[in-house]
Structures are given as structure tokens and as C-alpha cells.
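Dear colleague,

Following up on yesterday's call, I've attached the two folding results inline so they're easy to grep. Please treat them as preliminary; we haven't cross-checked anything against experimental data yet. The first protein's sequence and C-alpha cells come first.
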Amino acid sequence: MDEGKKRRLTRIFKEDNRTVIVPMDHGVTIGPCQGIENMQNTVNQLIKGNVDAILVHKGIAKRVNAGKAGLIVMLSGASNLNPNQNNKVQVCTVQEAARLGADGVSVHVNVGAQDEDKMLIKLGRVADDCDVLGMPLLAMMYPRGPKITNEHAPEVVAHAARLGAELGADIIKTNYTGDVETFKAVVECCPVPVVIAGGPKAKTATDILEMTAEAMKAGSAGISIGRNVFQHENPAAIAKALSAIVHSGASVEEAQKILGGKS
């Protein structure tokens, strides 16, 4: 691997080769939702929570101080006001992200969507740019489209994850399949590290802690969870709790104690 990529990856992954990423690119997709109205305030809380990296769009990257956390710049975007919102278009280049001091970039692909072909072309081109510039690439690979009846089905999650790796991604973010054994199979058939998405806001923090613990048991390289962290009443505490599971192998019960016993 290129030395530049290696150095940047050490700012995203800890020495244990695991990571806690908090994506906050939601302002493009759904607007200024609760938790990201004031980005610097939220980032400050996440830094206190010892997150390893944050993920934002280029305009936010210009304006926030990520402190000791790694900075991943999102290259894809589409608003939910778009009648074809599953078509994620490129809104930033790898070169722009490099000028902003990014430690990595991310591309979003909806596998099975009507415009999957366009998104795959973009992924392939971005992967080449990343190799040229020594920039790690995180591919968000989500099974979404007319033929997808269950976005968490092991066979489609595995296909999406492998597809991203086949086209040059260094890290894959995808859905958790719902149980340890099936997700273990996803991880084992993907030649690059896999992190799980958090999905919509969960009913309880315990649900997220349990999902994270199961994913780590299955061999996940970590998590990339947004709303369930930055919309929590105490983002720093939930980040610390998740980090304890990811990096220290804490149990769900131990992580709950970090949250003050709240579920």
C-alpha cells in the first residue's frame, strides 16, 4: 500500500486496526436535522467522546476544527427532495479533499438502484484518483433498489460489500445483517475492512450498543454511526460507550455504565 495511504489510515484507525467514525453528512440529504445545527459544538462533543474520525461534506470541512479526530470528506450527495434520491452524484473531488487536509474520502453507492451504473463508474474513477494521491477511500455500499426486498439480507449485503472492494475501496461501510454468523460471512468474503452503518434513529441506545457488540464479534473493523450518536442526549457519552466496545472489547453492560445505566 502507498505510504500516503498508510499514514492517513493511522489517523482513522487506531493501533488495533479498529475505528469509530461518526458521519455527519446528513445536512445535504435531509437538511439541518437535530444534532447538527451547530456543527462545531457537536464535533467538540465527539472529540470528548474519543471518536476516531468524523465524516462531513467539503463545506463543513472548511469550517470545523476536527481536533485530534481524523477527517473524512464525503464526495457524494443527493437531497431527499430529489425524485431520484438514490442517485448519488459526485459533488467533490479527491483533489479538493486533499487540499482541505482530509485523511480519507467517501463515496456512496446504492447497489441495485436505477442509476447504479453511474455510481459504479464514479467509484472506479475515484478509486484511481485515491491511489494516485495516496488517499484512503471509504465506500458506503448499500443494497437499495427495485429488486432489493430486504436491505439487510446477508446475500445482498455481502454482494454490495464485495462490489466496493472489487472496484478499489480501502474500507467498506454497509448494513449489519442482524446476527453474528451471517455478518461474519460478509466480513470473511470482503478483502478490505468492513464497518457497519447505524441506520435510522434506534429506539434505544442499548439497541446500538448490542448491534455494535455483535458486529465486532463477527469481525467488523468498527462502526460508522451518525444519527444514533450525534442525536443522542449526550453524544460524548454514547461515543465513549461505543468506543469501549470497539477498542476495549467492553460488554454491553459495561458500555451502559459509561452511559450512566441509561437504555
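Below is the second protein, in the same order (sequence, then structure):
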Amino acid sequence: MRVPQRSVEWTQVTEWKDGAVRSVQDTLAAEEPLEIRLDGVPLAVTMRTPGHDIELASGFLLTEGIIDSREQVVEIVQKIQPDGSGRNLVEVTLKQSNLDSSAVRRNFFAASSCGICGKASIDAVRHRNLPTLGTGFEIDPEWLCRLPETLRAEQEVFNRTGGLHAAALFDGAGALLVVREDIGRHNAVDKVIGWALNAGLLPLSKHALVVSGRGGFEIVQKALAASIPILASVSAPSSLAVKLAREFGLTLIGFLRDRRFVIYSAEFRCVPQPKPAKCAD
């Protein structure tokens, strides 16, 4: 995977090692604001690592409930800011000309507010009427244990900087479809889902999503928006993420590393279920 332009920056640092001091050149994961405008109206600004910005905006629109399909988008283009500061602006035009952009923006900022309670957050997801996750997709635990290593091997920017989150999408055969990295774990997920949306792969009802960080509430709700039935993380989930996953039947896995993982909900997709005993004649 080729590292996107502007995703890495060089800097001069002072290194101390075993009592020796030297000046060396180091790499940093880039972080810049990206503004998303909807029908000419500012919708959101997110701090992200530049690269795959169209995918990020596409995934954001879907996972935040602004669109349901790619067909609703007339055009999505990246532009240079008027001050020439960089390609940190994505303009989106939707087919629904009567869409109340200001209301959408107010709802988004309310839903993402740190002060909103857990019950209200889950209620907001309920009101989106997301598709029910299917129960026919299962994976082998041995295959599941290999996914973090596959993800880690593809983290190009992390390997150079040591400071980036990643998300990866796998199909039912265990094949890696896409890896995306970002300074924000939710942005990495949006890039993956945006890639799938633009490739015409949604719904992702027979896929698994693996993330390098923890499995938080926002990651679970984004997986649900794309109909992803299995979400695995190498770290711990949050309590609200577990509640949401259990209510919607998503298989939520944490601490996926060193041939061990913990299943917090819907374990039937990765652990063989005992067959019911036959009745005696």
C-alpha cells in the first residue's frame, strides 16, 4: 500500500539513547482539519490524517445517517481552500435539494457531544431504523486470531511514525479488502466504509471489521450503519459500545491478540454453538 501524500511529515528531533545525545530526522503522522460542506453549507470539521479524504467524507455521510446510499450523492469533490492552505475541503452535493443542512448539522453536533447521556445516544441509533443484522455469517476463531497480524503488516504510516490508528475490512473468505489509517480511529473506520460505499459493496453483511484501537460506541454505530456483523478490536470496548452491540445483535470482540479474544455480544458468529439434544423415543 502506497503511503498517501501529505500523510507523513519530517521533523528534526533530539534523541537520547544510553547516555548519548544526537540530532536526528524523524517522521510524524500528519494532522490537519478537513471541512465537509453539504450543498454549500458547512457540515462538519474533523481533524484527520490527509489521504483518502473523499472516502472519509463518503463514509462520514453514511455512518452519521445523512445518506443511505451512494445514489443520493450527485457529486463529491475535494477542493483547495480559498487561502491556498491545502486540499482540506470536500464539497458534497446531494439529490435532495430540500435537505435541511442546518438541521442535519445541529443533529450531528448534538449526537457527537460529550455531554449527551448513554440512553440518548442509543435512542438516536434506534431512530435511524438501521437494517437488522443477518445471523448467517460465521467465522473460524483460528482465522480471527490471524487478522491483527495481517492488519499490522499493512499499517504503512504507523510503521514509519508509530502514531496512527487503523481499520481493516475482511471478507467471508478471510481476504483483506482494504486498510485505512488515520490519527482518529473513527476517521479510519469512515475511510474504510467510504471505500466500500464508493465501490458498491454495501451492505457489508458478510464482512468483519478489525480496528487497532479500542471498540468505542462511535465505532459500533458506524459498523451498524454499514451492516457489518462482526467488529473486533485489539483493545477493550467501552460499556456503552457493549450495550449497543448487544441490543442490535452485533458480534463485538475485544482484546484480540496472542491467540486470545473476548466476545461481548452475539458469540454465535465465531464460537460453535451446541446442538440441541435429541428427544428420547
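For the second protein, one point worth flagging: Confidence is low (pLDDT under 50) at residues 109-116.

Best wishes,
A.L.
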